């Protein structure tokens, strides 16, 4: 999408990583931005930079997507400040890589609340407003892990697979109103994501050769907005591997457990 002047864009997970870069990309297109994340100081700094880029508004609102009550409050502020919502980009989420038989229940629950339920609630509240306005687009950042699960990613992959399935149904429900839902499925991205997901740094070192650059990838995502794209899968090598997985699942299991298992 080229010009977002006058449009209101919500970006969750905007305090760092891909979400931060998506906020900058939207700001460069002139959008009024609502930035949501848990870390207020970092979020406010991103908002300051967005205002310089957009010459428009950028509001930083602390919100934990793992707490539904905070999401309700976020949308109440959007209604009060702007009275409209044209584009939502859900980039909030986190991962933790561990064997399925070892990961603790609290971590599993938190990942499900943030990566799946929280994004669904944001999407639901956004869709309600977009249906009234008969206009809008929702972009949810899932993961290629939701299509190709590998060892030590069982729970994270499950949260993203749930989001992909949710988007597929939501897309069909909103299509008659002209509202698009685009699912973005990235592979590894060179961000601070892995400080939580894999504190050893081993995984990112192993996949750095195919890891996506967050600045460039944010631009790719924004270039697809407004064109009714259904899905975006990157890097292309992993997107191709997913297609092969559907055709030959036994071979896919072998590849996921060996060739593509860098953990």
UniProtKB/TrEMBL annotation:
Keywords: Oxidoreductase. The keyword DNA-binding does not apply. This is SDR family NAD(P)-dependent oxidoreductase. GO terms for molecular function: oxidoreductase activity. Belongs to the short-chain dehydrogenases/reductases (SDR) family. Transmembrane segments: none annotated. Its EC number is 1.-.-.-. The lineage of its organism: Bacteria, Bacillati, Bacillota, Bacilli, Lactobacillales. The keyword Nucleotide-binding does not apply.
